[in-house]
Amino acid sequence: MAALLNRLLQFLLTVWAATVVVFALMQVLPGNAAQVAAGLHATPEDVARIEAEFGLDRPLPVQYLDWVAGMLRGDFGVSYVTHAPITPLIADSIQVTLILVVTSMAVALLLAVPLGSIAALLRGKPLGALLSGLSQVGVAVPNFLAAILLVMLFSLGLGWFPSSGWQAPIEGMGGFLSHLVLPVFALALVQAAILTRYVRSAVLEVLREDFLRTARAKGRTAWSALLTHGLRNAAIPVVTVAGVQLATLLVGAVVVEQVFVLPGIGSELIRAVQNRDLLTVQAIVMVLVVMVLVLNLLIDLLYSVLDPRVRSGA
After folding, report:
1. pLDDT tens track for 161-210
2. Which SUPFAM superfamilies match (predicted)?
3. Which neighbouring-strand residues pair with 78?
4. Among 176, 196, 202, 204, whose CB has the most other CB atoms within 10 angstroms?
């Protein structure tokens, strides 16, 4: 219990430090946000009016505390450029990104765990060598290239799936799934290749353990011994890598959203940067940072489920 409270305290302190860093970085960027919002031909009076409207003329500590207090209430403020609330924009776009990222990781794990296990059990054999080679090739393929190749083959070539766009689930599951398939596999195939290599290494380590040899000596097959006793032990390093890769998927989703014209958080971030909408950029960056920190916290908590030594403090 004490370890859990300590980890939660570290999480809260890290989030607070992130708010300071993100806010400070936005302040040191060149240019005047009020000038951008007022336009190229704005007078000094127009700029001063916008600064007063958005509170940009107040001391920086006051602006920071107001921003943090707003986030705690779920209010990210109003865009300097569009004058629209930022919170609904983030709420709508983050749903698209989360669906894309979570589904991609699920598909990647569904591919990587069996393929990595087979590659480990059949090491030194043709199929094992083939799987290892394919995973090495997959690691070298960037997400955007995988996305382009999938569009060329399955959309432009075969016409099976749409090449771009998004349809919400409430508008029809058929259209939703058809628009989701290519973006998901553009992310999942690359992640599956990376995870397959880690799964293979983790399973090979477990296969050398005494408890696996004992299970084999009692008459169990290699697959039966691995499924019964080995996968849980092999999952611990894989969970670490999967957590890191899930965070990198958020970055990879930015590129894939651009390729498939998806209204995700990455697309909104790029649009805000292009428009120099600094408050929106600040809010989106903070949301992404908190998501990564939450993922790290969940991975730490999952350790205690997979490894009893973590729970006991051993």
Report:
1. 887 777 777 777 787 788 888 888 888 888 888 888 888 887 777 766 66
2. MetI-like (SSF161098)
3. 85
4. 196
pLDDT (tens digit per residue) in 24-53: 887 776 666 666 666 666 677 766 776 676
Q: How many residues does the chain have?
A: 314
Q: Report residue 231: phi and psi, to 5°.
A: -65, -35
Check if the beta carbon of residue 200 is closer than 8 Å to that of residue 116: yes
Cβ 260 vs Cβ 147: under 8 Å? yes
Cα–Cα nearest to 54, from 30, 28, 35: 35
**Which tops the pLDDT comparison, 165 or 221?**
165
Domain definitions of the chain by residue range = 2-85, 87-312
pTM of the full predicted structure? 0.75
With contact defined as beta carbons under 8 Å apart, do 206 and 260 qualify?
Answer: no
Alpha-carbon distance values, 301 to 108, 153, 237, 243 (Å): 22, 41, 14, 12
CA distance 269 to 248: 16
* Under 8 Å between Cβ of 295 and 246: yes
Q: Among candidates 168, 142, 166, which has minimal Cα distance to 251?
A: 142
Q: Given a cut of 70, is residue 231 above it in pLDDT?
A: no
Predicted confidence (pLDDT) per residue in 253-284, tens digit:
778 888 888 888 888 888 888 777 788 888 88
Q: What does the DSSP 8-state code read for residue 85?
A: B
Confidence at residue 207, expressed as pLDDT on a 0 to 100 scale? 66
Sign of CA dihedral 83, 85, 90, 95: negative
**How crowded is residue 125: how many other Cβ atoms within 10 Å of its Cβ?**
12
Residue 157: partners with Cβ closer than 8 Å, 6 or more residues away: none
> Which CATH number applies to 87-312: 3.40.50.2300, 1.10.3720.10, 3.30.559.10, 3.30.70.1400?
1.10.3720.10
